[in-house]
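DM between two lab members

TW: hey, do you still have the NitT/TauT family transport system substrate-binding protein entry open?
JB: yeah, one sec
JB: this one, 340 aa:
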Amino acid sequence: MTSFLKIGNIGGPALGRRQVMMGLAATAITSGLFSPAIVRAADRLPVRMSKAGPGTAGTIQDDLVAKFPELDPGLDIDWIDGSPGQFQMLLISGALDCGPFGALGLAEAAQKGAELVIFGSRLNNHGSWIVKGDSPYQHPSDLKGKRIATQLPTSDTYRHARMAAALHKLDLEKDFQVSFGPSVSNVALFNRGDVDAVISIEPVSTQLIAQGHREIARVADQWRDATGDSTTLSLVGVSATARWVDENQETARRVAQMTLGVNKRFASEPSLIRDPAIQAGMGLKNPSEELLALLEERLPRVYATEWNEAVINDFNRQLEVAIDLKIVESRPNYTYTRVL
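TW: and the structure you got?
JB:
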């Protein structure tokens, strides 16, 4: 018996319908794996979730659920297209049920009256400063006054890059000429020579390195070096409005289980990047052996495999630092994390 995952068309062209088996699903999680169980069609719960686009690491969510039906805990998912910055606006508007949000973005949204919560794992920070292989730049400070491209200012990737730069006495808004755009567009600017550097995300960073360009800094390393905090820098978790979670607790629980299961599967088996379907989702076309080997080495760190007190404390620490740096005004005045 089969079921179709519906693809929305917000913020980009529809990528087509994906067919996934619905015979096996998960109802509980043990040692990071779901216990297989038969989920009847009537028991499947509908949810609208963000579908990451080419040039981003989040594409494994729908791709791995399609490949491994046992990762599906009984959800009828409408995958909605968009970019990292767009997803956050769609969540606030109600056009999306679940999507990626980090603590900084959530705090900004709270200042505008939104009440969002993070209730599961998603991605660790994987931003990198990339320059041309033959450029003279060795450190982000060398790029003062130069042109750089990065993710949309509504994305937590940009907020993190701004925070980490500020910890090293650099102001992304004043010290650089910044262009904002989706990952693929930023690479086009970089390849044409329209910008001197790009603050990129995976898998794009690894693609550029395989082409001979240089990584002169990682945002997560900048954070660690400045704060002395060796905890993994969480970028975003799976998020929704507090109201939606309150009214759909079982759906939210299944979503959290699925994202955690997907992340653990890929992090423990990065050779999955050699699957043409996974490559296609990320926008990788005819990747070389060198690129695939680099991706196997570099991608596992991207996927958050825990949702616990340590991760929540990391988000709290980020807020403290961002408030001190005046990047966000204040903490949300409600409990913004949930463990379901």
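TW: got it. The first strand starts at residue 2 and ends at 7. The CA atoms of residues 63 and 278 lie 6 Å apart.
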